[in-house]
Amino acid sequence: MVDEDRTTLAPTEIYGRSDEEQNGPRIWRKKTEEPPGNCIVYSLTIFVIVFAVCLILSLIFLRISKPEIEIVSISTRDLRFGGNSSNPYFNATLVSDISIRNSNFGAFEFGDSSLRVVYADHGVVGETTIGGRRVEAHKTVRVTGIVAEIGSFWLLNKRDLDSDLRLGFLELRSVAEIRGMVKVLGRRRWKVSVMSCTMRLNLKGRFIQNLLCD
């Protein structure tokens, strides 16, 4: 049998329709570019957030407050009192411990300061010195053994002293003013801390009671 030549009837190439695009079918893609208005909103939002964070941090770290000072304990020694109605007297030695609390983010340095003891509303009856020092950031320093000699010889007017001596109590107030500098991140500020502590000197018991600091 003689092989016959066979002609393939299927077309070897497929031609697209004349109305179809030669570059292939269209593919839909989502646009990734944001409108200009949205970029401005995002930029402003980021700016506001950064500004708010900086403001909060500055209020926390750069805020400078005055240190707090108060009497922790106080005792008496060498107490003497007496006399008559025309010439009453008293004298004693007060030994106190004070604390200085620095709540700032920088150190507090102060020089020598005075501590005065006042009898009721009649005036100063004693004075001493608090030695200057440095209190580190967020630290509390305790100053011990501050000695103040008090006595009625300071008074020009001894009105009511005789009656107070007979009652056995003297109302005293300890006042101190510390002036120093706080340094925070290169900033320096002068601060004045004032201490005012009231107390009662029990003459018969020879001790201090009702100690209260503002």
Keywords for this entry:
elongated; 3-stranded antiparallel beta sheet; Immunoglobulin-like; 10 strands; alpha+beta; 214 residues; 2 domains; 7-stranded antiparallel beta sheet
Shape: elongated
* Strand residues, percent: over 45%
- How many whole angstroms does the radius of gyration measure? 43 Å
What's the architecture of the largest domain, going by CATH?
A: Sandwich
Low-confidence stretches: none
Q: Give the termini distance in whole angstroms.
A: 129 Å
InterPro entries: NDR1-like
Protein name: Late embryogenesis abundant protein LEA-2 subgroup domain-containing protein
Keywords: Membrane, Transmembrane, Transmembrane helix
Subcellular location: Membrane
What does this structure look like?
The protein is an alpha+beta fold. The chain folds into two domains: 33-62; 68-213, Immunoglobulin-like, CATH 2.60.40. It contains two helices and ten strands; from the N terminus they run αβββββββαβββ. It has helices at 36-61, 161-167, and strands spanning 68-84, 87-102, 108-110, 113-119, 123-130, 133-135, 139-151, 169-184, 187-202, 207-213. The strands form two sheets. Strands 3, 4, 5, 6, 8, 9 and 10 form a seven-stranded antiparallel sheet that branches. The protein has a three-stranded antiparallel sheet with strand order 1-2-7. β9 and β10 form a beta hairpin. The protein is elongated and about 95 Å long. The model has no long low-confidence stretch (mean pLDDT 83).
Summarize the structure.
The protein is of the alpha+beta class and 214 residues long.
Helix/strand layout:
Layout: H1 36-61, E1 68-84, E2 87-102, E3 108-110, E4 113-119, E5 123-130, E6 133-135, E7 139-151, H2 161-167, E8 169-184, E9 187-202, E10 207-213
